[in-house]
Write a structure and sequence with these properties.
The complex is a heterodimer of chains A (433) and B (143).
Chain A: H1 5-8, H2 12-33, H3 35-44, H4 65-70, E1 84-89, E2 99-103, H5 104-120, E3 128-131, H6 139-151, E4 154-156, H7 163-173, E5 177-180, H8 182-194, E6 206-209, H9 216-226, E7 229-236, E8 241-247, E9 255-257, E10 262-267, E11 281-287, E12 298-304, E13 306-307, E14 319-320, E15 325-326, E16 331-333, E17 336-338, H10 340-351, E18 357-364, E19 367-375, H11 385-403, E20 408-412, E21 419-420, E22 423-424, E23 427-429
Parallel strand pairs in A: 3-4, 3-5, 5-6, 6-7, 18-23, 19-20
Antiparallel strand pairs in A: 1-2, 7-8, 8-9, 9-14, 10-11, 11-12, 12-15, 13-14, 16-17, 18-19, 21-22
Helix pairs in contact in A: 2-3, 5-6, 7-8, 8-9, 10-11
Chain B: E1 3-11, H1 16-26, E2 31-38, E3 42-49, H2 52-61, E4 66-76, H3 82-92, E5 97-102, E6 111-117, H4 120-129, E7 134-135, H5 137-141
Antiparallel strand pairs in B: 1-3, 1-4, 2-3, 4-6, 4-7, 5-6
Classes of the chains: A alpha/beta (433), B alpha+beta (143).
């Protein structure tokens, strides 16, 4: 279902006209109210009045995570504190948390966008939403809460933790929509099984999952084990929280970005140059309508791809691919940008499943070398040396074809690649900085 | 007329072969024959053992990648020209030997060689037609 038919299906020209108008207003506003942006615009020699076309966005400076830290806690706010009705903050695993603010209108916008999100994922009025995203400084819990209420669903604000009680409520209240991180949903399923409850016997129809990277394989696992349609959403507190983009239940192929509120770009993380549609790079957002905490060209560090092909759901909004990694992971090997996720896609295509692998980068005789170590699986193992050597050669060729970088593929024994807390380390860079 | 062989993937680093033999010995599995093919990166250890299922299970439990292949055990006269005779028969019919290795035990007064062919059925038929004795699996495991 499309919650906001008018804005989600605008013809591109109409949408771009709205974006330009909003971008011009935004540039004026941040230049006048946020000292950081006045300085950044001046340093780039650009004035708000220079924005004549949408492409002029590229003239504006980027905003980095570090800029938010430097202006901790409220330095980036564009509205006076007395108009700010809500404050959220990121977990801040490294250093200080990132603080974001919302005016009353921002909260209203967010609720609308989350209502759109839930509707796109297949929820509707009358659904019972079991909201297991954490409530508190984290934007997940309250974001979903307001959106579900706006949609007209019944929200169970269960938040995270106390898993056994969650199982009891799921059994007794019969919720139809699960909102949680993908990893927590699998944990819920395991705990339910321990309690002798088959998760698939519950009333759930769809699950809306986000806030951490997950894969297509994980989606299959969740759908099988939990007996629901698993939908991917994307958002980050700096931009608004959840509610930036979402998959539609009709196509389940790429996440529609709410472009009347956010302009997405894909850039080369090394040079900052904008890349075209279909190219993998760092996702950058400009918030068009936020009052308290607007951002110009915020570099998310998340890697994705943008697609503009029309979608069968009828939305005219651009789609982004599933997040495939972090731009911090990008390697430059002999001058070529290499993302571990690209190598992973080659291995996926070759092996059928995502094997465990690690990229070892070194420098020999002033030349960068790339070795791809791949854990061997029983499916591809052979007793003949030539079979395994051909496999190595074929992967080397596929990587060379895709990336233009020669590498050496080395098969290694299973479980020899180090995993930290279930997450594998993908890159070992031995080059001296 | 097929003999089951298990193969184990080994990285080229110290102690891996020792680990395989240790695991098998602790499980009471007896190695009847083996060969190791190696490249600069990795090795493939091929084994004929007295209890395939147990060997496979225990190796997998210890995190090894284990494969299973059918091979052919052939009696070879233990005298000059014994092997040459058999290879001559195969080569005349263009049957390719993927690899081969010798068995530790004799079968009576003859030696036993393990052959890996692409086309096992054709190879076995050819050898038997030429009066070469091909051993059955259950004979080989208990030699």
């Amino acid at each position: 279902m499309i919650y906001d038919e008018e804005f989600e299906t605008l013809p591109r020209e109409a949408l771009e006209a709205i974006q330009l108008k909003r971008l011009q207003d935004l540039a004026e506003r941040v230049y006048a109210t946020v000292p950081f942006y006045k300085k950044a615009f001046d340093e780039k020699g650009v004035k708000p009045g220079d924005i004549k076309h949408l492409e002029d966005l590229h003239k504006l400076p980027f905003t980095m995570k570090q800029d938010l830290r430097d202006n901790y806690p409220f330095g980036m706010f564009a509205s006076p504190m007395e108009t700010v009705v809500r404050i959220h903050a990121s977990s801040g695993t490294t250093g200080k948390p990132t603080v974001v603010g919302y005016t009353r209108r921002d909260i209203n916008t967010w609720a609308e966008l989350m209502a759109r999100t839930l509707a796109a994922a297949g929820a509707h009025k009358g659904d019972i939403v079991h909201n297991a995203y954490g409530y508190g400084l984290f934007t997940g819990g309250l974001g979903f809460h307001y959106g579900a209420e706006r949609l007209g669903a019944s929200v169970i604000p269960v938040s995270g933790g106390n898993t056994k009680r969650q199982i009891l409520l799921m059994r007794d209240f019969g919720p139809t929509v699960l909102t949680a991180t993908p990893s927590y949903s699998l944990h819920l399923c395991d705990v339910a099984a321990d309690e002798g409850l088959d998760f698939r016997s519950l009333n759930f129809r769809i699950g809306v999952f986000g806030a951490e990277p997950w894969t297509e394989n994980m989606r299959k696992e969740i759908e099988n084990k939990l007996g629901l349609e698993a939908m991917d959403i994307y958002g980050l507190s700096e931009i608004i929280g959840p509610g930036v983009s979402v998959e539609c239940i009709e196509a389940k192929n790429g996440l529609h970005i709410f472009e009347d509120h956010f302009i997405p770009e894909i850039i080369d993380p090394a040079t900052g140059e904008p890349l075209g549609y279909g190219k993998i790079g760092e996702l950058v957002f400009t918030t068009l309508t936020k009052q308290a905490f607007p951002l110009i060209r915020y570099r998310t560090r998340d890697l994705s791809v943008l697609y503009r092909e029309p979608c069968r759901c009828g939305r005219t909004l651009v789609r982004m691919g599933r997040i495939t990694g972090r731009s911090d992971d990008m390697l430059i090997i002999r001058g070529v940008n290499v993302f571990p996720s690209q190598i992973e896609s080659v291995l996926m295509a070759s092996e059928g499943v995502a094997p465990h692998y690690v990229l070892v980068v070194d420098r020999k005789d002033r030349m960068d070398t790339l070795e791809v170590q791949v854990e061997i699986s029983e499916e591809v193992f052979s007793d003949a040396v030539k079979d395994l050597q051909q496999r190595e050669k074929r992967i080397e060729k596929d990587i060379k074809d895709l990336l233009g970088v020669s590498c050496k593929v080395r098969l290694v024994e299973p479980k020899t690649i180090q995993r930290s807390q279930g997450k594998a380390q993908r890159v070992i860079d031995k080059r001296q900085p | 007329m097929r003999v089951e062989q298990i193969s184990v993937f080994l990285e080229n680093k110290a102690g891996r072969l020792a680990e395989v033999t240790r695991v098998l010995s602790e499980a009471g599995v007896n190695i009847r024959a083996l060969s190791l093919a190696d490249t600069s990166d990795f090795g493939i250890l091929r084994l004929i053992v007295n209890d395939n299922q147990k060997a496979k299970a225990i190796l997998k439990e210890h995190g090894f990648t284990v494969g299973k292949t059918d091979v052919v055990a052939v009696e070879v006269a233990d005298r000059p020209g014994g092997l040459a005779l058999i290879l001559g028969i195969l080569s005349k019919e263009n049957i390719n030997v993927e690899y081969m290795y010798a068995f530790v035990q004799h079968s009576g007064k003859d030696a036993v060689m393990i052959f890996r062919f692409d086309d096992i059925d054709a190879a076995v038929k050819l050898l038997q037609d030429n009066n070469v004795k091909v051993l059955e699996g259950k004979t080989v495991y208990t030699l």
